[in-house]
């Protein structure tokens, strides 16, 4: 059984870079002799990802990079994790992802399904190629801080502090767009566990206010419809 | 000078300094020069993902002062 599963498609300019962002985490795992599976490029597709997740039900998951509100996108530009298979993330210690927007909905669903921590972004993640070292440091900080056994609330605070510091340093170097991207990414970063998701739906918000985390257990209308349609 | 004008000047300065470098926002990949062109054309995605974050940062007095200083726009 692997302790970690790293999923990293590489099919365009963005994933070319995000694929490389993962190398420092893989180097760390090698150095610490931890077992991991590297689902890179052609292996980062739904069938392979589902099979690997099923065979390694307690492995921590790292997914870099593309996504949308509902899915994490694989090497064939098709979803590898979506609402149909998100339960495969249940009971895992974490999923860490750089994917755009997934935290707005899919990440919430992973957390609702029982993934113990979901580090994600609720909007489009941006960065610049003139500050890749700083962005790599920011985007992989969650992984390295968790390796030090920090709790997620502290990890969230530490990453946000780091991103604020990096944004200031970049501005000081005259890299204004890089600084603005870093500050923006800091604002859209979420860790569900360190914090509870904010419901967009007013009914869900009321249920969460009245019932706390249990309010998230009530199925959404789309889920209820999905269940009704099941044969 | 308003934040939009200042943001565009900052982008133009960066575009001149590093013509090969790119801004990546999700699947949108562009050089600084291309970003400026898209913003000026009214491309909503470029405005949302490039101009707006820069304008947001310009709300910070320290950031704004640094941009003005770097661009040599201080009043003598």
Describe the structure.
The complex is a heterodimer of chains A (231) and B (76). Chain A is α/β, with parallel strands linked by helices and 231 residues long. In chain A, 45% of the residues lie in helices and 14% in strands. Chain A has 9 helices and 9 strands. Chain A has a 6-stranded mixed sheet, sandwiched between helices. In chain A, strands 4-5 form a two-stranded antiparallel sheet. In chain A, a hairpin with a 5-residue loop joins strand 4 and strand 5 (79-81). The model of chain A has no long low-confidence stretch (mean pLDDT 93). A two-stranded antiparallel sheet of chain B has the order 1-2. In chain B, a hairpin with a 2-residue loop joins strand 1 (22-25) and strand 2 (28-31). Chain B is globular and about 40 Å long. The two termini of chain B are 16 Å apart. The chains are: A alpha/beta (231), B mainly alpha (76). The interface between A and B is medium-sized, with 27 and 26 residues. Strand 8 (126-128) of chain A pairs antiparallel with strand 1 of chain B.
What percent of the residues of chain A sit in helical stretches (DSSP H or I)?
Answer: 40-55%
Strand content range of chain B:
5-15%
CATH fold-level label of the largest domain in chain A = Rossmann fold
The computed structural class of chain A is: alpha/beta
How can the largest sheet of chain A be summarized? 6 strands, mixed
The overall number of domains of chain A is 2
Measured on Cα atoms, how large is the radius of gyration of chain A? 17 Å
Distance between the termini of chain A: 34 Å
Count of distinct strands of chain A: 9
Sequence of strands across the biggest β-sheet of chain A = 2-1-3-6-7-9
Q: Give helix % range of chain B.
A: 55-70%
Report mean pLDDT of chain A, rounded to a whole number.
Answer: 93
Beta-strand residue fraction of chain A = 5-15%
What is the C-alpha radius of gyration of chain B, as a whole number of Å?
A: 12 Å
**Main sheet characteristics of chain B:** 2 strands, antiparallel
Kindly state the mean pLDDT of chain B as a whole number? 94
Record field, number of beta strands of chain B: 2
CATH class division of the largest domain in chain A? Alpha Beta
Low-confidence parts of chain B, pLDDT < 50 over ≥5 residues? none
What's the N-to-C terminus distance of chain B?
16 Å
**Overall tally of structural domains of chain B:** 1
